[in-house]
Amino acid sequence: MATPAISAVGLTIALTAGPASASAANPNDNYYGCPPGAACIYNNGDPNSGIENGGVYWSYGPHNLNNQVGNHYVVNNQTSGAWVELCTGYNGTGNGNEIIYGSPDGDNIDLTPINSIVLGTGENYPCSPP
Questions:
Q1: SS (H, E, C) the chain
Q2: Lower CB density within 10 Å: C or N end of the chain?
Q3: Which residues, in sequence order, are CB contacts of 90 under 8 Å at separation 6+?
Q4: Which of the four CATH numbers 3.40.50.12280, 3.30.70.260, 2.60.20.10, 2.40.170.20 does domain 27-120 have?
Q5: Which residues of 59-83 are buried (b: 16+ CB within 10 A; e: fewer)?
């Protein structure tokens, strides 16, 4: 009877230790708080200002912006060489104002003329050249 009790205690300790070590996150995965695989827009031109409410974008394709005036820091923390293009029109149309390549990378950008951002990969950029 004593042996199963010791075995159960050993099993409990093993199960408790496993998740604690597996949940340790690498602090280098975030770039100014922007999670890997995402593009982020910050409250103003300083990345230390924090990501604005609703400012994390995960999916490829166009994302319309509303009431974005003045300088904001924009980060590309997508993986696999994905880019972020800033377009003057809605739905990824208009002139391409800037493309943020690489990951992670960021830039202080005046979003006043920008009405959408597009996340994508490859060489097919949806905005017309300026």
A1: CHHHHHHHHHHHHHHHHHHHHHCCCCHHHCECCECCCEEEEECCCCHHHCEEEEEEECCCEEEECCCCCCEEEEEEECCCCCEEEEECCHHHCCEEEEEECCCCEEEEEECCCCCEEEEECCCCCCCECC
A2: N
A3: 62, 64, 115, 116
A4: 2.60.20.10
A5: eeebbebeebeeebbbbbbbeeebb
In the prediction, which pLDDT does 28 show?
52
Residue-wise pLDDT for 62-76, tens only, equals 999 998 999 999 999
Every domain of the chain and the residues it spans: 27-120
